[in-house]
Amino acid sequence: MINRHIRLxxxxxxxxxxxxxxxxTVGYQNVAKYRNFIQPAVSEEERRERISQSDLKYRxxxxxxxxxxxxxxxxxxQYCPILL
Length: 84
Hints:
The chain has 4 helices and no strands. The protein has helices at 2-11, 14-17, 26-34, 44-78. The longest helix is centred in the last third of the chain and has 35 residues, at 44-78. The mean pLDDT is 90.
């Protein structure tokens, strides 16, 4: 939320901006680097690449969680006596 506030204030005119740095100034570049602002994608291809990397990361996390559940269920079934 704070990063968004800084970016939105930087777009305003000098009177409305207050003591926030304007976009394109050295002060804004320093704040953006210090606060690790995410820069917008330059092209559609770059945007798709970022989305696919993010999807892959979270897909791997979901798969790891599902794998743990399956292994736990398998252990329970493996040692469970068969009721006839």
